[in-house]
């Protein structure tokens, strides 16, 4: 019976190792191209945050705690919120309204990566905030699971 559990762990680790780079690259692609195609900061942030779940599933709670620093995730989420607010206030600083896309005419041609002005940067900051927030919440849930498993033993 113990041999079957070990084989399952190898399969889960291999699957986590295989899908983690795919989730990271695809999630970053969705964040960076969210203003040009379906998707955006929220969707891409959740996809990138799936890497935390993959590390947990493949390697367990201790490795997940060692790889991802909770305090750094909290500080990064705060930074991302400030970053979003800063880009949103650019509209007011340029004499328009809050969240106004004031840099659109100063950027590249339509369809290029940086062509949407402040929309790109606001989308990026939303993605960064979501990936740090969901990653932090995942770590909290995994900690609660560990406590529950320790209590039941």
Description:
The protein is 76% helix and 0% strand. It has one domain. It is mainly α and 153 residues long. The protein has helices at 2-32, 41-59, 61-67, 70-93, 118-152. InterPro entries: CPA3_antiporter_subunitB, MnhB.
Task: Offer a concise description of the structure.
By secondary structure, the protein is mainly alpha-helical. It has helices spanning 2-32, 41-59, 61-67, 70-93, 118-152. 76% of the residues lie in helices and 0% in strands.
The H/E string reads HHHHH
The assembly state of the depicted protein chains is single chain
Beta fraction of the residues?
Answer: under 5%
Biggest β-sheet description: none
**Total beta strand runs:** 0
**Backbone CA Rg:** 19 Å
Counted up, domains total: 1
Query: Which regions have little confidence, pLDDT < 50, spanning 5+ residues?
Result: none
Number of helices: 5
Q: Please state the average pLDDT score.
A: 85
What's the helical proportion of residues?
over 70%
The backbone outline, from C-alpha atoms, is elongated
Derived from helix and strand composition plus strand pairing, the structural class reads mainly alpha
Instruction: Give the termini separation.
Output: 20 Å
List the helices and strands and how they pair.
Blueprint: H1 2-32, H2 41-59, H3 61-67, H4 70-93, H5 118-152
Give descriptors for this structure.
elongated, 153 residues
